[in-house]
Amino acid sequence: MTEFSGQRILPAVKTVKQFEKLLGSRYEYGVFLDTHIAQLKNLYAMAAAKGKKMFLHADLVQGLKSDEYGTEYLCQEIRPYGIISTKSGVIQKARQKGVLAIQRIFLLDTMALEKSYALLEKTKPDYIEVLPGALPDMIGEVKARSGLPVFAGGLIRTVRDVDNAINAGAAAVTTSNEELFKIYAGGAGRGTQQ
């Protein structure tokens, strides 16, 4: 695997303490889940100083409306490695601004899945984040039908869940599970773990 320097997981951090651990780790890529707009410039400066490439979940930035204007601000002022969102306008604006765009979709039922396929046709993201990611059969189906690379996220609790998602075709797994951060940290999330 060469995507994301071979990282199997992309640690998704929700707190400054988690972020500080990520800064001191061998992980090159990570995700900001829950942040405040006033912290973003400082967080991204700290990440850049340590050579970290951070995705940003635009829908979870407190103090910023998750729309095209908010996305334009993020792309111009913060310059995240990539933007994750459930919103089509956010994905389209990120792509327009040359930032990796990750469309987050929820696998609730067949009708939601079909609506997601229609949305993907419209937004044309660089990646799809499939939730819950603990459904390996669905990861393979979404990847095959959309023709796009997939992240698996949500309800990833064990090494087996990570392996199942990767074996099903996920490019990487996003997780906020700190135990998995530790397990994969030695090799920065590379390779199969016992």
From TrEMBL:
It comes from the Bacteria. InterPro entries: Aldolase_TIM, GlpP. Keywords: Glycerol metabolism, RNA-binding, Transcription, Transcription regulation. GO terms for biological process: glycerol metabolic process; positive regulation of DNA-templated transcription. GO terms for molecular function: RNA binding; transcription antitermination factor activity, RNA binding. The keyword Transmembrane helix does not apply. Regulates expression of the glpD operon. In the presence of glycerol 3-phosphate (G3P) causes antitermination of transcription of glpD at the inverted repeat of the leader region to enhance its transcription. Binds and stabilizes glpD leader mRNA. This is Glycerol uptake operon antiterminator regulatory protein. It comes from Paenibacillus beijingensis.
